[in-house]
Amino acid sequence: MKNSAAGILYSTLMKNSEMSLPSEGTKGKIYLSFGLIAVSCIMLPCCIAMGAISNMLTQSMISTEGLVGINGVVNQGAMTNGLISLLHILSAFSMVFSLLVIFNVLFFSADLEYLVTLPFKPIEILKGKFFHTYVAESIMEFLILFSVFVGYFIAAGSRFIKLGPGMVIAALAALCGTVLMPMLPLVYCALVSFILMALLKNVHNKKIFHRSAYIFLLLFIFLFLASFNGLGGISVENYMDSLAGNANLFMTVCNGIFFTTPILCKAIGTGNILYLLIYLILNLAALFVMLTIGSLLYPSCLYAAAALGAKRTHSAIDRKLFRVQSPLVSYLQKEIKTLLRTRAYASNCIWINLLWPIGIFILLFTSGNNATLSYFIDLYRDGGYPRAELILLIAVIAISFIATAMNSLASTAFTREGQHTDLIKYLPMDLGSQLLAKALIALIPTGLSLTMTILVIAFYIGVSPLTTVYYCVLSVFSVILTIVIGLCMDSSAPYTDWSDEYSALRGNLNNFFNMAIAMVIAAFICAFAFLLFEFTSISIEVESILVLALLIAIDIPAVIFGRKLILRNMLEMY
Length: 574
Prior knowledge:
By secondary structure, the chain is an all-alpha fold. It is 76% helix and 0% strand.
C-alpha cells in the first residue's frame, strides 16, 4: 500500500493530522515540559489504572473457577471472561465515539472537495481516509490495550508460565490484539455510514446521521445496565459474579457483535496458534467486506454528501430582522452559533458538560446498591465526621478542574477560528473584548454544568445552603484558573491548519496539555487541603476558607499575567 495512491494519501493525511508545536527557544522548552507533564499525569496513570482493572478482573475470575455460579453451573475456564468483558467495553466505546468521526472524515471533511478533483479513485480515498482515521483515533487505545494485556498476564502468573511454548503464541496474540482490536469497531462505523448515507441520501438533513451515534450509545448503556437484571443490584461484585457464571447479558450480546474478541482471548488463554490465525483471518475478512461494500456505495455516497452540504436556507436568513448590538454581544452570539451549529463542537464542547450532572445523579440515585457510597453519605449527614466534608471539598475541586479542561472550550478558543484567524483583526472591537468573549464562552457552559452538579450533590447528600454556595464559588474560581491556562496555551500555538472540525479537536495537543496542567494544579490544591487538615488542628470551616483563599491567590496573578500573555500572543498571531 506504501507506493499506491491510497498509501500516498494516507501518508499525506498523517503528516497533517496534528498541530506543529514550537521546538526551539523558550516556547519549545515550555511545550516539551507540557508534553512530559501530560504523559506523566494522563497517559501513564490511565494505562496503569486499566492494567490494574484487568488484573483485578482476572484474579476475580480465577478465584471463582471450580465454584458453583449464579446459574447453578460449575464455573470452568472463566479466567479470560474478565478480559473479554473489558475488551468489549473498550470496543463499544470505540465504536460509539468513532461513528461521528468516521461520518465526518468520509463524507463531510473540508478536504474532500479538493481530493475528488485529484487523480484519486473513490476507493483510494476511502482506503487512505479509513486507515488514517484508524491510526489517528487509536494511538491512545493502543497504549490502553497493551496495559490491559499486561495486567492480565501478571494476574495469570503461573498459569501463563505453564503454557510452555504457548507463552510465545499468547504474547504474540496480545500484541496482535493491541494493534487490531480497534479495527472491527471502526469497520462497523464505516459500514453504518455507507448504509445510512445510501438509504437516506434524499433526506437532506445531517441530523439523522449524527443522531445515530447517540442511539448506539444508548443501546450499549442499556445492555450494560440490563446485564445486572436479576443479580440483586448494580455493583462490582454482582457484575463479576455474572461474568464468572457466564450469565452477563452485556458480554453475551457483545460476543456476537465483536465476535473476534472471544477468539483472541482463547488464543491468549490457551497459547493455541490456530485461534490466533482465525482471529487474524476474521479481521482481514471484516476489512475486506467493508472495502468491497465501500467500493460499491462510496462513490454515490460522496455525491449525496456533496449535495447535502450544498443545501442552504437563504430564505430563512433573508427574513431575519437585524438590529444594532454591542460588539461584545455580537461576538458572543457568533461563538455560540459556531459551537451549537457545528456538530463536532456541540457534542465535544457543549453537550459533554451534561455528563457531569447526569453522571453524578445516576451515581447518587443508585447509591443504595453501593455500600461504600451509602456509608459515606450517612457519615456526611451525621455531621460529626469532618473528614467526609473534606472529601467532598476535594471532590468539588477535582471535578471542576477536570470538567473545564475536558470540554476544551478554552484550549480550542483560537484553534476554532481555523484559517480565518487573520480576519479577526478587521472586526470593530479591540482584542481585549474578543478575549473576554472567548473567556465567557468557556466560563458560562462550564459554570452552569458544575452548578447543576453541585446542586445534585447537595440534594442527595444533604449539604447546607451556605456550604452549597461555598462549593459553587470554589468551583467558579477553579474554572477560571483552568480557562486562563487553556487560553494561554491555545493562543501560544493555535492549530489552525485543520481539514475538518473533528481534526481541530483531536489534532489539537493543547487540549491534552491543558488537561495535564489542570490535573497537576488540582492535585496540588487537593494535597494542600488534605495535609492541612491531617497535620493541623484547625476546623473544617477554617480550612474551607484557607483553601478558597489559596485558590483566589493563584487566580489573581494568573488572570493578570495571563491576559497580558494572551493579548501579546494575539498580536503576534494576527
